[in-house]
Amino acid sequence: MFYEPSLSRLKNLNISNNGYITLIFKEIDYNEIYDTNLKKVINYDFFCRFSINDKTIIGYNPKHVINTDEEPSKKIRENFKKKFYRVEDIKYPIFIGGYLGYYGYENISSIEESVKSNYNNPTNIPINIFCLYDSFIEIDYKIKKVKLCAVCNLGVNIIDNYDKSIKLIDDLEKFINSNEEIKWKRILSQDNISDKWQTNCNKVEFIKKVKKLKGRIYRGDFIQVVPSRKMYKYSSALPYDIFDELMKIGKNSPYRFILKFKNFFLIGASPELLLKVKDNKITTCPIAGTRPRGKDEEEDLINEEDLINDDKEISEHIMLVDLARNDIGKISKPASITIDEYQEVKYFSNVMHICSQVSGIIKDEYDYLDALQAIFPAGTLSGAPKICAMQNISEVETERRNFYGGGIGFINYDETLDMCIGIRTILYKDSTVYLQAGGGIVFDSDPKTEFYETVHKMNSVKKAVSNAEMLDLKRDIREDTRILLIDNYCSFTYNIYQYVSEIVNNVDVIRNDKIDVDECLDYTHIILGPGPKSPNETSNYKEILDKCKGKIPVLGICLGHECIYTYFGGNIKICSEIMHGKTSNMKHNGDKLFNKIPNPFCAMRYHSLVGDTDNVPDVIEIISETSNNIIMGIKHKKYDIYGLQFHPESIGTNFGKQLLKNFLLTTEISS
């Protein structure tokens, strides 16, 4: 394998001016192991994996990072002082070195001073981050080739500079061929956040906002506006698992990426181009008009016909095509604007959209960053007239959008760029995932329909998170794990069964008075389930604990917990607060049973009885309590025996599945 362009060819250019750079690369055959090996980039503070159709860019350890709430064009220009030299007949990658990152929605306040940004920034991420990559990898999955790339300074020191670039390329080749343990560790949010989806704007609130905006459309303030809302939750999933699952679901999206910026990730599958600048041509692709995908081809066609015959959707789309023509026209040469595609319906993972493409030739006095500012943000994420629409967005939305509605992509050293719109994108930070989606509101909009459009747009991303969580739930669990769930005549037993069955394949449920105690030893773990009445009225729990203690890990839930407490010498009494179908915040001591679980966390209670704190058995350690010190969790100091007074299987409990998995992981299976 050889390097392109060769040193001799660069020397023959006779470039003595040190103000030029070019790109050196080595092309090798693709190997599937590279995708696995490259996941170790997650160990670095900054990395990018950014795909456009069949080509993927991977970079790590950037040379420089712009992290700012200020509009970054000035800083980018300052670092692009050298000119890029394209050697003839060389087929360069789509990315030739430069900046890769995101350009946040709130930059509009610098571009257009009359639009004020929201200052409320609960995720605490900057408006912009761009990483400067001088060495990187490009994988072309279509032709199964890999380019290992490094920027090279031209000029009088070309020989030394070329050798430095070759060294970077050789390091990339070692990197792509080496396997390395993933050392990245999750950080838990310090907030008492739920593992159920929450929102900053519910259905009633969103419909109310849509009605308010429609009233302003009626009186002529604007003709379209795009309000949005967020959803968020704690997630046990690993970022790369979310990315892998999103790639399966969003494979039809042209832009796919996972980007790490030290303490957070952006993971996305965006269908929409914001702006492409190449060979003095600027291109944008407005997408507006949405229907859900059908369950089969026939239903897809029915939904497509409904979409293209919907006056509201068509008028919304035409408005945005006209807006795109206007934005590109700000900096394009007269008579150069063309509509390359118009009202084509394209299918994506869970929705279909009406799509168009508008292009123009940039005027000589403008550059790539002028083009970005001219079209920013896309009308599909703001509205028309754009300024008035954005002023209203700032009013009805209470939080910063940051990457949402902004641009995500790269800016090349040769002043070309390619950015998608930050939609269908997940922010992952502190083990919390954040999604956002909006809907285009016009006079004909139905408020309820617009709410459900945001739901449809987020569904594919939510599914990716859910699938990744399922992978994490099963991770590290031994295949020979076999659970016996004792049914104490409780109406919630099969909720526990369903949760546990998501983690392991072998779960048996047996009533407490039907169990052959000797058969308990055939299982790796036992769960004493909840139920009515008191331990003294519960069949076989003493016999089960006699048989299993020190041999098989046991978890007691509610009544099962009370049975364990009683068995080891504790007293049970009527609780000072009767809690049936009510939640409390649970404090814990950091025991392994609470691994990956915030402190405190919210859990559901269904009990009248409780362990008496006045006579805690010497062999029992309290590992969880309420804020008023009611016992909520115990463990035996010698045996793998745990008890939980609350119900991990309840829909009102956060991290219930994680608790059950932790029980399986933190207790030892007898060989």
How would you characterize this protein structure?
The protein is of the alpha+beta class and 671 residues long. The protein has 16 helices and 34 strands. Strands 1, 2, 3, 4, 6, 9, 10, 11, 13, 14, 15, 24 and 25 form a 13-stranded mixed sheet that branches. Strands 5, 7, 8, 16, 17, 18, 19, 20, 22 and 23 form a ten-stranded antiparallel sheet that branches. Strands 27-26-28-29-34-33-32-30-31 form a nine-stranded mixed sheet, sandwiched between helices. The chain is globular, with a radius of gyration of 29 Å. The protein starts with a strand and ends in a 5-residue tail after the last helix.
Topology:
Elements: E1 3-4, H1 7-11, E2 20-29, H2 33-37, E3 46-52, E4 55-60, E5 64-68, H3 73-78, E6 83-84, E7 98-103, H4 108-111, E8 128-133, E9 135-140, E10 145-153, H5 158-177, E11 198-199, H6 203-218, E12 224-225, E13 228-234, H7 239-249, E14 255-261, E15 264-270, E16 273-278, E17 281-284, E18 287-292, H8 297-308, H9 311-329, E19 338-347, E20 351-361, H10 368-375, E21 383-384, H11 386-396, E22 407-412, E23 417-421, E24 425-429, E25 432-438, H12 447-474, E26 482-487, H13 493-501, E27 506-511, E28 525-528, H14 541-548, E29 554-557, H15 559-567, E30 572-588, E31 601-611, E32 620-625, E33 631-636, E34 641-644, H16 656-666
Parallel strand pairs: 2-6, 26-27, 26-28, 28-29, 29-34
Antiparallel strand pairs: 1-2, 2-10, 3-4, 3-14, 4-9, 5-8, 7-8, 7-22, 9-10, 11-13, 12-21, 13-25, 14-15, 15-24, 16-17, 16-23, 17-20, 18-20, 19-20, 22-23, 24-25, 30-31, 30-32, 32-33, 33-34
Helix pairs in contact: 6-12, 7-12
Keywords: Glutamine amidotransferase, Lyase, Magnesium, Metal-binding
Catalytic activity: chorismate + L-glutamine = anthranilate + pyruvate + L-glutamate + H(+)
Domain Glutamine amidotransferase: 484-665
